[in-house]
From TrEMBL, chains A, B, C, D:
<dbReference type="InterPro" id="IPR044543">
    <property type="entry name" value="YHJQ-like"/>
</dbReference>
<dbReference type="InterPro" id="IPR005560">
    <property type="entry name" value="Csp_YhjQ"/>
</dbReference>
<protein>
    <submittedName>
        <fullName>Four-helix bundle copper-binding protein</fullName>
    </submittedName>
</protein>
<dbReference type="Pfam" id="PF03860">
    <property type="entry name" value="Csp"/>
</dbReference>
Length: 108, 108, 108, 108
């Protein structure tokens, strides 16, 4: 029901949702310090939620997915940068970058 | 933790989420016909999901709530119009309009 | 479409969802220390998610809401106890207890 | 952070969430008739939501995932049966069965 490009974007969104949720709620909480610094932690949780929502919009088949994908690309790019700044978050950086790139295409 | 205006917007989002979800999954499914016309039904479910997400972003305390509120205002306005067109959906029209207005302010 | 008792339970679930999400992502993250202790923080986020899901099941109108309400009552009761142990979380304790009580009735 | 068995269950839950959401909101809405019969459609949406929640609980790392997985296994089994009854839903039947089996193990 979805194009190959959209299917691939749904996968990228769900992969990023999984990584951000799991890293925040396990790695970050266990490490503490910078990892639970409010702005960083909130960004990770907002990123996870936006990815989940963008995937949902594509699965529903609503044309509004273009707008959620645009916002998702923006949050993911910001989250990738912040995870890189803090360090020891390579898996999250990669998932956020891949999702940002994929959502950027869907938003166009 | 939220301003009075934000608290009021969270309430408007959750009220619209409740109304759209409940109307779609009960009233619309029972009525059938125009009520389960794919574009209309998808719009109602997209509206419900966007309201839920916007409320979540305000509760998280992320500055990205401005973007989700902007998109929420747009979907709610569209959903209000479509529910009005179909008719017999006054509760939904009212909840969508109130949410659109509140989200518009938060997005500014 | 819902009974008065169910409407009241939906409200209790959404109130608890709002309080747990907002307290965890703002108060707890800002305070740190015991407030971001992994088990406590995970419990608050699990409580928020379960409340959101139970409300959703009642809005959908599925008979499975009895099972999600039963689990919601259990998590809320546990979260109330843990918030009381840590202290300075009165709003959360109250919302969790009210939700546990309301869900208990719906699960019966 | 998750065992191989849990990782596999998260995948099964998200695969079932994707299939149920997409089939309901596209295939079922387009087909109409039995496909939008209220009880069937509600079951599909409840199944999608429960799968999403169970995956979330495993990603959060809360021990309550055992309870959400138990309920998820039950809803998925029921949804598989109902999709088989209606017919022309093979992809959904397969995703629900795989998820039910995987969740059953996690709930044990």
């Amino acid at each position: 029901m979805q194009s190959a490009e959209m299917k691939s974007c749904i996968e990228a969104c769900l992969a990023c949702y999984k990584t951000c949720t799991s890293m925040a709620m396990n790695h970050c909480l266990e490490m503490g310090g910078e990892h639970t610094e409010p702005d960083h932690f909130r960004l990770m949780m907002a990123c996870a939620e936006m990815c989940r929502t963008s995937a949902h919009f594509m699965l529903i088949g609503t044309p509004h997915h273009k707008h959620t994908c645009r916002e998702c690309a923006e949050i993911c790019a910001e989250c990738a940068k912040d995870c890189e700044r803090i360090g020891d978050m390579d898996e999250c950086v990669a998932a956020c970058r891949a999702c940002a790139e994929s959502c950027q295409k869907m938003a166009a």
